[in-house]
Design brief:
The structure is a homodimer of 302-residue chains.
Chain A: E1 3-9, H1 13-25, E2 28-34, H2 38-46, E3 52-53, H3 57-61, E4 66-69, H4 76-86, E5 92-95, H5 101-110, E6 118-119, E7 121-123, E8 144-147, H6 155-167, E9 171-174, H7 177-203, H8 208-213, H9 217-222, H10 230-239, H11 241-264, H12 267-289
Parallel strand pairs in A: 1-2, 1-4, 2-3, 4-5, 5-6, 8-9
Antiparallel strand pairs in A: 7-8
Helix pairs in contact in A: 4-5, 7-11
């Protein structure tokens, strides 16, 4: 047992699931939840997601040896600035934000002198439902977690954050901050944007009721991510706007070309695109299968 | 038992599933499969999907009282023209095409004198996998089937096609041809086009391997329909091109607006779109729940 006091700031789906997963392993002496909403915080305690709650930030982080910031990306900068006032110098800080460039920039603004104990992180896991009620001890099992250490990051701090996630069943990898944001813009941020936009556009059509009535399973799957938290996704889209707009531009070029092929009745061109997409997806599904169970699943991982 | 000889032209996922479902109910005396590929046809027999196979079209439809055309939309016109030579005047013809305007136009070209027994249809059911191996007797259970009768359609022919689908567990509704094509362009054809285009665009990026490697469950769901049959979807996109390009235009307007909101850092606008989409999807999911089990599930439905 190495983490004595693990403090989770923001006990929603991700923060709550991490608390449950960590408590199951027994690697932390105490898991404390903090949040801005007293109601949510109380529910986290009632649902036995955390060992204790503390609505006062200064009191919450006092004595913490690791702090996990699990709040929407848009609130990250303000949080870091508050945290900088209260944190012990050797306390490790990590986060779960879906964009890393913006989080690192916010950390550099706030933690002006001490960045050695800051380990940016991103668990690639989620659910259609959000909130502490949806928290799940197995959410990170066999899921990828990307850590994006910065030059200042202390290797021991990095090792401990990695170990925390591995205890939760995740496969941890490391990546450059910029690379993370490019990859996630393509496979996560853009698809969310497209799904939200499609459902919004159809809902504005005259016969939207009729349209949705005849939607089948394919539409339900395609639009599942449009049920995600609007505030969080607003923040993510703005935080990673440069990478997102770049990949959206690439996508729009493709869309313009298929639209032209349809208008011209160019079946050959259309089929080539569809064929290539189908093969690429098959290849991608094979990659997924190769995600191995993590080596460390006992509480000896620290 | 009213259908003595039900002939299914094209024994793939849809044709094969219909054969299995109908045979389970016992409402047809004989279900005969026809197809261009001798191998597929033989597999349909080996897998006991049909009672009999007949590789010769003239022989297959001889004595048929109902013929179901379950081939890709692009092959429909040629098939109707061949069929017109062999069909008995009172044989009912229906189809399972995803676009109805193009199918009706093809039928009008081919069946110049006799359209009373033509009942255009579209079962809204599918699977990620295609082919006779994926055929499933329960594929149409609680799924919607849309029939789009034309002015010439005989009410008795319509009643019998409706009864066939209801026997398979489907909920059957009727719709105008044009309305069908508008509704399906929005909820099926456009999402397929967007999914194919996204996967193709990402697969062309320099680090596509890395991109797909870090894709999570949301991406897998969003792109599931990009694993659909490229030839069938090429045909559908071309057959329903007018409606598809219209709804794509609406979608592109929405996408231009959200891109502008992101570029301008307009979080309020972005959140309004995301909120509206999420609420619309919740509403749509509630509609889905109201699909009731069909009234007729015994073989008395004829």
């Amino acid at each position: 047992m190495i983490v004595k006091r693990l403090v989770i700031l923001g006990v929603g789906l991700i923060g709550g699931s991490l608390a449950l997963a960590v408590r199951k392993t027994g690697v932390c002496q105490q898991v404390v939840g903090w949040g801005r909403s007293p109601g949510t915080l109380q529910r986290a305690l009632d649902l036995q997601v955390v060992d204790a709650i503390e609505p006062n930030l200064a009191a919450a982080v006092r004595g913490a040896d690791m702090v996990v910031v699990a709040i929407p990306p848009g609130a990250m900068q303000g949080m870091f600035q508050e945290l900088a006032k209260y944190l012990a110098p050797d306390a490790i800080v990590t986060d779960v934000g879906s964009t890393k460039g913006s989080v690192v920039a916010a950390a550099r603004m706030a933690f002006t002198t001490e960045l050695a104990h800051f380990v940016p992180g991103h668990p690639i896991a989620g659910k259609e439902n959000s909130g502490v009620e949806a928290a799940d001890a197995d959410l990170f099992q066999r899921k990828r977690v990307i850590l994006t250490p910065i030059p200042e990051t202390n290797p021991e701090a990095l090792r401990r954050v990695r170990a925390l996630w591995e205890c939760c069943g995740a496969e941890v990898s490391e990546m450059e901050v910029e690379h993370h944001d490019t990859v996630l813009a393509a496979t996560s941020h853009l698809p969310h944007l497209l799904a939200f936009t499609l459902v919004d556009a159809l809902a504005h059509m005259d016969d939207s009721w009729e349209i949705f009535r005849y939607a089948a399973g394919g539409f339900r799957d395609f639009t599942r991510i449009a049920s995600s938290d609007p505030v969080m996704w607003r923040d993510i889209c703005l935080a990673n706007r440069t990478e997102l707009l770049t990949v959206l531009g690439r996508y729009n070029e493709g869309l313009t070309q298929v639209a032209a092929a349809i208008a011209a009745g160019d079946g050959t061109r259309l089929q080539a695109v569809f064929d290539h997409a189908r093969k690429a997806r098959e290849h991608f599904l094979q990659l997924e299968v190769t995600v191995q169970a993590p080596k460390n699943t006992s509480n000896r991982c620290f």
